[in-house]
Design a protein that fits this description.
The complex is a heterotrimer of chains A (319), B (495) and C (278). Chain B is an alpha/beta fold. Chain B has 23 helices and 13 strands.
């Protein structure tokens, strides 16, 4: 293709800049052949569609039915019963409140700590590799194991941490009283996932152009001023990505809580995914569970929308 | 027909086998004849009951079949998993056992029923979480019990302890049998005999009564004993008198039920019936009765002086705490005996739980094994053989001796065997038996307590232990907890 | 380096670093120590730091009716294969998504990532029925497919981000030189995203390896994975903490090794991918 042809074909500069090529416009006029890009996407999208759209449809159907399992699944329509039950169920709204707190606490602390530790590590001259290696380990531990470890460390009969607490005079019952139990499960989640945030932030930090920082210090800005006004803004895109990746899972994971406190004590740690599991597989009220599940999905989508919009804004601003 | 009742438990004796093989050659025609005489549940399909002639049903008639058994990870299942060769030897069949935690089991069983096909032939049927909600998916075992082509229940069905057979095997309908009793843990009083012996005199003086566990000990006295231990921990070296399985979990409901019933309270108006045969409409919840509230108040009082770890412990956590010397006494399931004896030897004592103002109540936690009705007929019959073998006296005794096992037999005949009787006291080669006397006391009709068996029990259970947990956390008074529970339970059962 | 170093701030940094390391490492070190500690010492009220090490817990895991070696293999196969497939399909799909000019592109991208947000307990029943129909229960291939439900969207999305950061001019140049579209992808763009491929593969591997809910629902006797082994040790009569910490070590070590081996790629990869549009 000669440069002239190329200019004709990509008048607006090329696919990466989001322009619409005249070729594709031409294609649209004639019979529709799936574009190359679409064909590339199909092997991934088709299985994904099957694995997600069918359950989604099923979920909607279940949410307006009563589901019985004996002799095979059967659904009998009950209209909006499940939905109205959900809106008037104090247990469900209590769980939403706890989930909200849990979400903000875990993701919030993980972001703060993750960024802080990343900066700490970034500052180091010696032994950075080893340090990062050690600090990354928790994120590779299965949540189930994290929960069991938590139980192991805080058991009042033989736990290391409970023993340490008694040394400082606290008669420990960490998982046994509502407030400390909630704090403990938040701490477990923070322990596991802060490294992920740290990793992503670290990557972003290494990409901050040196000249930018030098210019700021030449202007006389102190360390923290430089941090706040120069460094953080330039990695904010990275931070939003980290936030999105973590937030996606923070809503639906419940392995840790399930295996440590099972929602207790006094329902203090009964986050909504845990209640969902209980309603589905202990009470076998699958129609009701479907309604709650859809609500969770809706909430996740709204939240993801917010984050993606934020990302788009960053991208737009950067350009 | 060979009368297997006369032979040893669980199997064909050598004499019978010899007799059988002798006649085998001359009786080839009999199988088909006998098969067609079997009861209505059996179709004359090609695979039904081949018998070694003379009428002795052949244990090997389903040779080559593989069975899938889903079970909670309990001691008897662990023993069978470690030694399923015995079953293969006897029947020529293979059994694949999947063990898991109870909640996971309930989930998989539910999904399996939902699929309409049977991934599992034999199901560990927890009376409250599997039997009550899913009895329609289980086979009525009477069909097989009367089927002459299949071996009869070794030792007969009367050999099972009657209250256990009722609780674990039947639901709503006296004429149907859904499961055979498989294990029978029961809550009893476990305590440090050595500590009690050492301080008996001091305690008698301080308390005004003999603290040694006896038939007359009351819960109030238990409380006073525990308090004394708390106040004297410097002397005993043990920080707390009592510890409990008070985690926000099924265990809390179990622990509380002992006290609830002993005060004359109950979940419903007729807990005996609802706990025995079960009910589809148990009526109004009775947790707001004065007795129930009294019981809740006592339980709150008792837990306030208990080891603080109690609210993080289920039964195994409580046992771990006891073994770690964190408390002197613990109400717990009697199957923990072997572990406690391994740790303390003869310094651990077992007794029936204390009594309340109205009676003594010890909650029963046994379970039966059942057959999936979605399985093919051949698989069902093969599964029946497994049920017979797994609940036979022979196997149950072998469990007691197994290194990984240590189960709790469900047959009267087993408890009357001389070997078993001898090992029920120290020294013993079957440590789990040391708690047997206490358990057998607990099984007496006046002492036994069965929780309600209704299809919505999971939800009711959750309400009970959640409200109790809030009470123990100081978030609500005992009477508020009971009243709140009653309100929610009434809604659940539609009263 | 952002700051000039004073003695005071150096010291503060050191202390903070030590605290962070302790917070991170102590649980893992304790777990590893406990796995070779005799059970009596594990259950002792006062923590025991000096003890005679024993391998009995590890031995117990592989004998006695436990089949942790089989579980380990199952985990490796299911997680490994699923993450590879996800990465491959993700590379294709991500490229397509990135280069696509269709009108609903943003919505498609959003839909893809939203599939990863489905609440697990709610979709277990429909997925179970689908798997039942397809005969995927109690099989490693079933697990591979199950893991794809969360690996695929993640892989597509991450790879799309990587391709977004590659200027299209490279492919155009290749096309000018006579390359086919596929060739441009295969020979030019894809190699440049090597870091992204590794990142995607490792993260998918970790998520699959750590999964408990799907494995527990869809696996049977022949396809159980390591996290299930861990929960199976929670028996009715107690938890064998010795064996449990040993399982914990077995679950953790392979992932840590894999993660650290590619750590350099991870950092580079996330830089390129995360720093989008810069």
């Amino acid at each position: 293709m000669t440069p002239a042809t190329r200019k004709r074909k990509y008048p607006l500069g090329g696919p990466a800049s989001g322009g619409i090529s005249s070729e594709s416009r031409r294609r649209k006029k004639s019979r529709w052949i799936p574009s190359f890009e679409l064909r590339m996407m199909l092997p991934g999208i088709v299985p994904l569609a099957v694995l997600s759209l069918i359950p989604f449809g099923y979920l909607i159907w279940m949410s307006v039915s009563k589901v019985t399992l004996i002799g095979g699944v059967s659904l009998t329509g009950v209209g909006g019963d499940n939905w109205s039950k959900m809106f008037s169920d104090p247990a469900v709204s209590a769980s939403w409140k706890i989930s909200a707190f849990y979400f903000v606490a875990t993701v919030g602390i993980e972001m703060l700590l993750g960024v802080g530790i990343a900066i700490l590590v970034h500052e180091r001259l010696f032994g950075r590799n080893i340090l990062v290696s050690i600090l990354l380990m928790p994120m590779f531990v299965a949540p189930v194991i994290v929960g069991l470890l938590g139980r192991f460390l805080t058991d009042s009969s033989f736990g290391l941490y409970s023993w340490l607490l008694t040394l400082v005079g606290i008669d420990s019952n960490v998982l046994g009283s509502p407030r400390t139990a909630l704090a403990a499960v938040v701490a477990l989640d923070v322990w596991e996932w802060t490294p992920l945030i740290m990793l992503i932030t670290l990557a972003g930090l290494s990409a901050v152009p040196q000249p930018l920082i030098e210019a700021a210090s030449l202007d006389g800005a102190g360390y923290f001023k430089r941090l706040w006004y120069v460094v953080i803004p330039s990695i904010s895109g990275v931070l939003v990505v980290a936030l999105l990746i973590r937030a996606m899972d923070a809503i639906r994971f419940f392995d840790i809580i399930w295996i440590t406190t099972n929602g207790g004590p006094a329902d203090a740690t009964k986050i909504i995914p845990l209640r969902l599991y209980e309603i589905a597989f202990r009470f076998f009220d699958l129609g009701y569970a479907a309604a709650i599940g859809l609500t969770m999905l809706l909430f996740s989508i709204i939240m993801a929308n917010l984050f993606v919009a934020l990302l788009e804004k960053k991208k737009g601003a950067a350009q | 027909m060979v009368n297997l009742d006369a032979s040893q438990f669980g199997g064909i004796t050598r004499r019978d086998a010899l007799r059988g093989t002798l006649l085998a050659t001359s009786a080839v025609v009999l199988p088909g004849f006998l098969a067609s005489c079997s009861s209505s549940g059996t179709k004359a399909g090609g695979t039904s009951g081949a018998t070694v002639s003379g009428g002795a049903p052949d244990w090997k008639q389903f040779q080559g079949t593989t069975l899938n058994f889903i079970s909670e990870n309990t001691a008897p299942s662990a023993a069978i998993a470690a030694d399923s060769a015995a079953f293969t030897q006897k029947t020529g069949m293979n059994v694949k056992i999947q063990q898991m935690e109870l909640g996971a089991l309930v989930q998989k069983v539910a999904l399996d029923f939902g699929s309409g096909r049977a991934s599992y032939d034999v199901i560990y049927a927890d009376p409250y979480q599997v039997l009550a909600p899913y009895y329609k998916g289980l086979v009525d075992l009477n069909v097989f019990a009367q089927d002459k082509s299949l071996p009869p229940i070794p030792g007969g069905i009367e050999d099972f302890i009657p209250s256990q057979l009722l609780t674990t095997g039947r639901f709503l309908d006296e004429t149907k049998l859904y499961a055979l009793p498989y294990d029978c843990p029961t809550m009893i009083w476990i305590y440090r005999k050595d500590i009690f012996a050492k301080f008996k005199d001091q305690m008698s003086q301080a308390l005004g009564f003999d603290p040694t566990p006896s038939d007359n000990t009351t819960w109030e006295q238990y409380y006073k004993i525990a308090k004394w231990f708390n106040d004297n921990k410097a002397k005993t070296g043990i920080p707390y008198g009592t510890g409990h399985q008070a985690k926000q979990y099924d265990s809390l409901m179990c622990d509380f039920s002992n006290i609830l019933a002993s005060y004359g309270g109950g979940y419903f108006a007729d807990d005996t019936k609802v706990g025995g045969i079960g009910s589809a409409s148990p009526g109004k919840c009775m947790l707001d009765s004065p007795e129930a509230i009294q019981a809740a108040e006592f339980y709150n009082k008792l837990l306030s002086i208990a080891n603080p770890g109690s609210t993080t412990w289920d039964w195994s956590g409580a046992d771990a705490g006891f073994q770690a010397g964190q408390m002197v006494m613990v109400p717990n399931w009697h199957e923990f005996a072997s572990g406690d004896v391994a740790k303390f030897g003869e310094n651990v004592g077992f007794f029936r739980l204390p009594k309340g103002p109205k009676r003594c109540a010890s909650i029963f936690g046994g379970t039966g094994i059942s057959i999936n009705a979605n399985a093919s007929e051949k698989q069902q019959k093969a599964a029946w053989l497994f049920l017979l073998w797994a609940t036979s006296g022979e196997t149950q005794v072998a469990d007691l001796k197994s290194k990984v096992g240590g189960g709790t037999p469900t047959r009267t005949s087993v408890y009357e065997m001389p070997e078993v009787v001898q090992n029920s006291k120290w020294p013993s080669t079957m440590p789990n038996l040391l708690a047997t006397n206490a358990a057998r006391e607990a099984w007496k009709p006046e002492n036994a307590y069965m929780r309600p068996k209704i299809s919505q029990w999971n939800q009711v259970d959750t309400v009970v232990f959640t409200e109790l947990s809030k009470m123990l956390a100081g978030q609500q008074s005992p009477s508020a907890a009971m009243k709140s529970a009653k309100q929610q339970i009434d809604k659940i059962v539609g009263a | 380096m952002i700051a000039r170093r004073s003695r005071f701030s150096s010291a503060v940094l050191q202390i903070l670093t030590v605290l962070v390391v302790l917070f991170t490492a102590v649980p893992l070190v304790w777990m590893a120590l406990s796995s070779i500690k005799p059970t009596n010492d594990i259950m002792s009220h006062r923590p025991v730091f000096l003890f005679r090490p024993t391998l009995e817990h590890y031995r117990g895991l592989f004998t006695n009716g436990n089949h942790v070696d089989r579980y380990l293999v199952n985990s490796l196969v299911a997680a490994g294969v699923s993450s590879l497939i996800a990465t491959a399909l993700g590379a294709l799909g991500g490229y397509g998504l990135s280069r696509s000019t269709m009108r609903g592109k943003r919505h498609l991208a959003f839909w893809i990532i939203s599939t990863r947000m489905a609440p697990i307990a709610a979709v277990l029943l429909p997925l179970f029925l689908i798997f039942r129909r397809l005969g995927l229960l109690d099989s490693l291939s079933g697990l591979v497919v199950a893991y794809l439900t969360f690996n695929l969207p993640f892989a597509i999305w991450i790879m799309a981000a990587f391709f977004d950061s590659l200027p299209g001019s490279l492919e155009e140049a290749a096309r000018v030189d006579g390359c086919s579209r596929w060739g441009a992808f295969w020979r030019i763009s894809l190699p440049l995203t090597r870091a992204g491929l590794v990142t995607t593969w490792i993260l998918c591997l970790v998520f699959s390896w750590n999964d408990y809910s799907f494995a527990q629902t869809f696996s049977g006797t022949s396809s159980q994975t390591l996290p299930i082994a861990a929960t199976q040790l929670i028996t009715q009569t107690g938890i064998d903490w010795g064996q449990l910490t040993a399982v914990g070590v077995i679950v953790v070590v392979p992932m840590v090794i894999a993660g650290l081996a590619v750590r350099r790629w991870l950092v580079t990869g996330l830089t390129l991918g995360a720093v989008t549009g810069e």
